[in-house]
Specification:
The protein has 472 residues and is mostly helical. It has 25 helices and three strands. 46% of the residues are buried.
Length: 472
């Protein structure tokens, strides 16, 4: 399903002036915030259901921290953003309605520095903050918004089958989209300029943007008819690269060190490549031959590969070399606790989770692991106390709601279990599933008056929202 989203990006490249326009009433004339959020939730429901969505809390947490570091310095940062990972080796990133930004694993591995990765993400954030979708709708006609929504869903298989893409474009009467590609330069330059500003204000290397795009352009010369995915969705010109270089030349030299988490995420992704045994051999070879820029990250990758290969004893031995003390990176502490958990040492796992959670109470991947370990140990009341505390802090976390559903189920709280699962479904964009779950909960026959009243109120709210969604 995610293949369509890359083709969908082609649909959001309007004819723009070089100067920044009024982003207020003009851009929302045909395209309201509610309509954008509705389409965003619809598309994200497809993303979460797609096997190429990488459901890895640690990598996603890193990406959101990086993304919000950039968003925080943007002049237009009123939006809520969601950054997610696509398990795809091609180099690409894309912005979607509702502040949703997807990043391919191929981009995470191809970036030669954290600043290069940040430059691409900043570019995508600029597409969102500048309301490019809304501006295109305003520049067209009132009927164009439903046409664009239909096109987004019709192009699900376009990347893998060009004939399907052509048919989809024709069926939605959106064939003029091809002509819009000739006018995408202003659109891209605008995102370049604002992305560059975010990059420098956030403390990244200002030369990274031009370096990455220039390297991508050089690589493109070796392709015949199939350019890299990022170039197909973000047309690159010599003028754009010249503009980036001109901006960076005037900037003072700044040596920016990559964060440890950037290195750990890349090591984690490499440990997922090829077969488990191949991944272990590759990780051992990297350490033996010292082919790494960070030994800690290389050893982290080896532990990840060993766990994948189910070599638990060897993984525990390597974890000890990482010295997972209280001052360690939270990703390392999470890996140490998870190593003990998967190796069957539940007591050690709980000890490590407790210590790590005290050191990093705001690192949610640790909380997910800790709650799951408590449930496995049969400490359901402790799990409930922890998940409820976390939900007071992060009420929009669909993973926490799933854990709450599991916790209530183990405690025999049927209404609360279905209600929690309904919240998780709603946050995943699936209102139909949420309504089904809340109905099951109300039919369960347990729960007090206040719990039933709250469930009925949520059901009415979701039914109204689902009705509005279908209407839109």
């Amino acid at each position: 399903m995610l293949r369509i989203l890359l083709a969908f990006i082609l649909a959001i490249q309007p004819v723009l002036a070089a100067d920044l326009p009024d982003l207020g009433e003009v851009s929302r004339q045909y395209f309201s915030d509610q309509e954008e959020q509705t389409l965003g939730r619809t598309i994200m429901r497809e993303v979460y259901a797609d096997p190429r969505y990488l459901d890895d809390p640690e990598i996603e947490n890193y990406l959101n921290q990086l993304g919000y570091r950039l968003v925080s310095v943007s002049a237009l940062n009123q939006r809520t953003f969601t950054f997610f990972v696509v398990d795809d080796p091609t180099i690409n990133a894309f912005a979607l309605p509702g502040g949703n930004v997807g990043v391919h694993t191929g981009l995470l591995l191809a970036a030669q520095s954290e600043s290069e990765l940040a430059s691409v993400i900043a570019h995508e954030i600029a597409h969102v903050t500048q309301n490019h979708l809304a501006r295109m709708a305003a520049a067209r006609s009132q009927s164009y918004w439903p046409t664009m929504a239909a096109l987004a869903l019709a192009l699900l298989a376009s990347r893998s089958n060009p004939n399907v893409a052509s048919a989809a474009i024709a069926s939605t009467q959106a064939y003029s989209i091809q002509n819009q590609l000739n006018y995408s330069r202003d659109f891209e330059r605008e995102a370049d300029r604002l992305g560059y500003d975010m990059l420098t204000r956030a403390g990244f290397d200002p030369h990274a943007m031009s370096a990455f795009f220039e390297r991508l352009q050089r690589a493109n010369r070796f392709y015949d008819t199939s350019a890299p995915a990022y170039l197909r969705t973000h047309p690159l010109t010599s003028d754009r690269i010249a503009d980036m270089e001109a901006r960076s030349e005037s900037a003072p030299y700044r040596q920016v060190e990559d964060s440890l988490d950037f290195q750990l995420v890349r090591a984690r992704l490499r440990a997922r490549e090829n077969t488990p045994d191949d991944a272990v051999r590759a990780a051992r070879g990297t350490l033996k031959e010292k082919r790494y820029s960070n030994e800690t990250a290389a050893r982290y990758g080896l532990v990840s590969a060993l766990l994948r290969a189910r070599q638990f004893r060897e993984a525990e031995a390597e974890v000890q070399k990482l010295s997972p003390g209280k001052n360690s990176d939270p990703m390392i502490l999470q890996l140490a606790a998870y190593t003990a958990f998967t190796g069957g040492n539940l007591t050690l796992a709980l000890q490590r989770y407790q210590s790590a959670s005290e050191a990093y109470p705001g690192y949610r991947p640790l909380q997910y692991g800790y709650i799951n370990a408590l449930l496995t140990a049969g400490r359901n009341r402790d799990a409930l106390a922890r998940v409820e505390k976390q939900l007071t802090l992060y009420p929009l976390d669909r993973r926490l709601w799933r854990l709450a559903a599991q916790t209530h189920a183990q405690l025999g709280h049927r209404l609360l279990s279905h209600s929690a699962q309904a919240e998780a479904d709603a946050l995943s964009g699936d209102l139909v599933a949420a309504i089904e779950q809340i109905n099951l909960g109300l039919k369960a026959g347990d729960g007090g008056f206040h719990e039933k009243s709250a469930a009925e109120a949520r059901r009415r709210e979701w039914k109204e929202a689902e009705k509005s969604q279908r209407k839109n």
